[in-house]
Amino acid sequence: xxxxxxxxxxxxxQLLATRLPFIRLKAGKAQKTALWQSKIGGxxxxxxxxxxxxxxDGQPLVFFAQINFAEAPALAPFPEKGILxxxxxDDDLYGMDFDDGEAQDAFRVLYFPEVSQQxxxxxxxxxIRDDYELLPHHPENSHPLTFEIAEEIAPACDYRFAARxxxxxxxxxGEAEWxxxxxxxxxxxxxxxxxxxxxxxTQDDPRSAADPRLLLLQIDSDEALDLMWGDMGVGHFFIRxxxxxxxxxxxxxxxxxxx
Length: 259
Hints:
Layout: H1 12-16, E1 20-27, E2 39-40, E3 62-68, E4 83-88, E5 108-112, E6 143-152, H2 159-165, H3 177-187, E7 193-195, E8 214-220, E9 234-239, H4 241-245, E10 253-257
Antiparallel strand pairs: 1-6, 1-7, 2-3, 2-6, 3-4, 4-5, 8-9, 9-10
């Protein structure tokens, strides 16, 4: 049972009405993983004849993570099968474009709706360097992912909080504004690795009510994985619901921020 500060008790029903299900991701210790397995880092799933994604200058992008939805609990409208992959670039922005977050030049999202577990159908493993300096993760290490369904209420940093509770909601409490905001943030924690639900930000939500997008994937900084987005930041991939339903991943918004 969620315990709110007394000042927020009159808003309890409204706050609980923001509950959303999501899929929590847990990353295991670095180990050998199957090519079709959900993971961060390591070797990606790649059917024969599939080109490795590259940047406009021809430099190969770096495999970041993949989700095999057959391994995850069902959560509409996310796929129930198929492998979704994320590649980023080894540069100081990890492939993010401040001017156009949907431009898949220095990052790439790939989806394979049908998955073969026959090695003969797959491309051979690629060489993975271990001397990258600018990436948030260590691509030579493969961390398998496991999943569980969970539920959460809207954090104050997600744009949907203001849409439901009103912009500047905490200002009405006067001198207690920041104390209550801190207390609420401790309750509504959207940190961690996840699919769906609410996003966590150290800065601002790049989305708006005028152009809503679902959280396709959030990978947080994780000391156990030596994974770090800048200074204790968090990485996001967002998608419009209609594109997700159509399994069209060509307009995914890639964003990360840090302290």
